[in-house]
Amino acid sequence: HWCPPCRQFTPMLKDFYEEVEGVEIVFISSDRSAEDMTAYMKESHGDWLAVPHNSAVANDLKQKYGISGIPALVVVKLDGTVVTKDGRSHVTGKTPAQAVKDWKA
Asked: What pTM value is reported for the model?
């Protein structure tokens, strides 16, 4: 995969996702092609959702949440309200239980 920080973070996110309940991940790709996205998902991703590569939904969500670099993890409530735009540091710096507890506080 072409993004070294993503190669480092994605396995951590997969482990995190497997340990928590009540959290869903929706992957929005910045891969160069749909084929690259599919290959990376098969290779490294957890069993989470994804929007179609380079779709209007993907581009709208990136714009809505101000995604300018990757990897990014925006934590939102069910209604789309932002909990944190720095979910990545929560996943890498806290236990899964503590991160989820903080997000739901």
From this structure: 0.90
